[in-house]
Amino acid sequence: MTAKRWADMDEWESLAHRLRWAGHEARDVEGLVRLIGAQKAGARVIERIERKLADHNIGHLPTRLPTDSTRRVLLYSKEHEGVGFMLSLVHELAIQDPADERNAVVHQLDSSLKSITSLSLNARRVEAR
Questions:
Q1: Of 70, 59, 128, nearest to 93 (Cα)?
Q2: Calpha distance 109→128 (Å, rounded)
Q3: Please, which residues have CB within 8 angstroms of residue 100's CB and are 6 or more apart in sequence?
Q4: Helices (H), 1-129
Q5: Using CA atoms, how far apart are residues 84 and 89, in angstroms rounded to an integer?
Q6: What pLDDT score was predicted for residue 129?
Q7: Residue 77 host element (H or E)
Q8: Are 53 and 60 a contacting pair, CB within 8 Å?
Q9: In angstroms, rounded to a whole number, what is the distance separating the alpha carbons of residues 106 and 95?
Q10: Stretch 79-89: mean pLDDT, rounded?
């Protein structure tokens, strides 16, 4: 990314860019409150933060941001093909209605986790040689 383009980004775009590259990041709620331009993490401020995160395709865990500004939350890019994708599946399952009969998310997550486990086991076998 060029220096000019980086300088033109606002702080939310910069956060989204970092997350697209890294996949995830733990942050204090207080930092998000300051980023939105507020002093305190009340219910309305948290709603604004959640909307701003969604506008930039950023997911978060827990599924509802706490109003306690000392709490840490996990942010992730829904556009990241690795960790961000996995976290978005976990998030989707966490908020899914238990009566929902769709199994696609479970199958996607199971398949992805099996792939990771397989890669990890193969890496250990290679190291053991």
A1: 59
A2: 29
A3: none
A4: 3-8, 11-22, 29-35, 43-55, 83-95, 104-128
A5: 9
A6: 76
A7: strand 72-77
A8: yes
A9: 13
A10: 84
